[in-house]
Design brief:
Strand content: under 5%
Strand order of the largest sheet: 1-3-2
Radius of gyration: 20 Å
Largest sheet: 3 strands, mixed
Helix content: over 70%
Shape: elongated
Oligomer: single chain
Length: 228
């Protein structure tokens, strides 16, 4: 049953990733009427929110866009940083949504940042400890390492679910700001495209969280269900 659930979620995850990449490609090829680049949009959104101590940088990699609260930087992939498309506008505004969350001490982002060091440790432990733990469990019935592995997996799963409100709220802030700035995105078709792109981006986080939960349930079933 656990394996079947894992396979179903893996198929759903593949479908969502495929849909998101296709949506991003479509809206990357949809020019923004304002002609503003992702960098321009990011700086404007930051300044409109009274944020002047966050730097907007171009980083290598496709879909590598992220906000780093540690050094207060909005990091945009080249196609977003230089892009003048609906997708570039949506992604740039979304990442700035995280900067706004940070400036306003948004509780979910504060919590997420606080648990990052613990999650990094848990992530490094998970795969090896679970593998050895399962071997020891079936070989001798010893549950110690398996229990540690499941606990580490539970931490990373919790982190995946804490990430959801952070991502949804950043998109909400981005779309609200775009709605109020017709000089950036004034066409209703562009607005719908930005909303659609961010919706499918958010769905990738949803399936990632569900996948983490399914994995946790699978390994926990050994720990709490015995070897039979």
């Amino acid at each position: 049953m656990g394996l079947m659930l894992f396979i179903i979620i893996a198929i759903i995850s593949f479908g969502v990733q495929w849909k998101f990449k296709n949506k991003f490609k479509k809206y990357s090829e949809t020019p923004l009427m304002s002609g503003m680049s992702g960098k321009d949009i990011a700086l404007k959104m930051l300044h409109d929110n009274g944020i002047y101590d966050v730097e907007v940088l171009s980083v290598q990699g496709r879909l590598s866009d992220h906000y780093n609260p540690a050094n207060r930087t909005v990091n945009l992939s080249p196609e977003v940083y230089e892009g003048r498309s609906v997708a570039a506008a949506a992604v740039a505004a979304h990442e700035c949504g995280h900067a706004v969350q940070h400036a306003k001490a948004y509780s979910w982002l504060t919590l997420r940042s606080a648990v990052v060091p613990l999650v990094n440790i848990a992530s490094n432990l998970t795969s090896v400890v679970l593998m050895i733990g399962l071997f020891m469990f079936f070989a001798s019935g010893n549950i110690l390492l398996l229990g540690i592995g499941v606990a580490a997996l539970a931490i990373t799963t919790l982190f995946a679910f804490i990430t959801l409100p952070v991502e949804f709220d950043a998109s909400k802030r981005a779309l609200a700001w775009l709605d109020m700035n017709p000089s950036v995105m004034g066409d209703s078709i562009e607005h719908r495209g930005a909303k659609d792109a961010l919706k499918w981006a958010a769905m990738t986080y949803v399936v990632a969280a569900l996948s983490a939960l399914a994995t946790l349930a699978y390994y926990a079933s050994f720990l709490f269900g015995g070897r039979d």
